[in-house]
């Protein structure tokens, strides 16, 4: 089972920053997960929340910032003053660094109310083409099926995953329609039977956000292929492999 650093390595460095990516590298992880949105001037950036309040010294909706303003925010001090030089990264810079470190990236496309899913996907797709990022190093996921529909057309060579909290009854029809390779679900709601059915149908199964060793061991027994975790160091310290 692969250990994927959630938002970089969210327990050791401010989430969704380049420092988190370096941390993942130091731990020997092969995968990280990040969240992506667009600024007002349509730059794809790595950030989770709709507002910048929690993870920076700024205020208000991320989409109301141009890149030139957003890049000046301190995205590290809230976590620890030692990270005060961290900023919200552009997706292109994040993917470039990940590629040079040999780390694969699950790019989660975040769509908040009034966001344009099509525009987000077009911008992400354009920068992947422009900078020639290797398709093998990227996995797209989204809670928003529209994103997966757009990416199916824009980047058919990059695998896609449907993100859900609870697994819906029509999960298989949705995965088929969106031509997804994996299902990403909240681990708390997953049952052994569901895991058997999903794995038996030939899909990969990935669970978020698993920060408990005992639960992770159960998921591993059930055949879960990857977990997103804020605390990969706990598993590694217990002798697990990063996968
Ligand atoms: O992609 C898995 C997980 O990150 C989904 O939830 O809210 O942490 O982006 P969230
Ligand atoms: Mg996420």
From TrEMBL:
Coiled-coil segments: none
Entry GO MF terms: phosphoric diester hydrolase activity
Domain named GP-PDE: residues: 1-239
GO terms classed as biological process: lipid metabolic process
InterPro entries the record matches: GP_PDE_dom, PLC-like_Pdiesterase_TIM-brl
Top-level division of the source organism's lineage: Bacteria
Record PANTHER family: GLYCEROPHOSPHODIESTER PHOSPHODIESTERASE, CYTOPLASMIC (PTHR46211:SF1), GLYCEROPHOSPHORYL DIESTER PHOSPHODIESTERASE (PTHR46211)
Listed name of the protein: Glycerophosphoryl diester phosphodiesterase
